[in-house]
Prior knowledge:
Elements: H1 5-24, H2 29-39, E1 44-48, H3 52-67, H4 70-74, H5 85-101, E2 105-110, E3 116-123, E4 128-139, E5 142-147, H6 154-158
Amino acid sequence: MRPAPALRAALASAVALGVLTACSGDVTSEEADYIGDYSSHPPLKVVGYPSTGSLGITQQVVWRIADGKAEELALLASDERGEGVAEKTAENWIDAFRKGAGGPVTAEFYDEGSYRQTVVLYLHGSGQIKEIYVRAARVADKEAWGVNLAEPDPGEATAVGPWVPKTPGELGSKMVP
């Protein structure tokens, strides 16, 4: 006698759940968070030559701005700049760039990025441009990447350097002195 269709579906679901949970044992909480973020945001277009670390932190910056998560963005700071500076900078970036960060974004990575890198974000939906600086740092004897969050003045947070091109790739991803 063959099992009923409902029983077959339940057995198939149980087997699939068992396979998925058996595989997920190797995924850390940090990796699961990254997978969730990656799947719930538009893909970041990339110009230039990021390192794994500079690309990862840049993605997180864009995601935190798009989601309006100031506290989480402030936690990505590469170093301490004084009490409240990273938090105020995070709020400024979210206020200024949240709409654009939620849509298509191109990140242009300048020069070599093994230790630090200048990154220019082109927020296509809003037409805005944001220059950020990312760098490696040691946190609890482990290398981690962070972003310079030292723009507590809203005008400074939205200023665009005179060297920054209007479109990605104009300078061939090389800094102009």
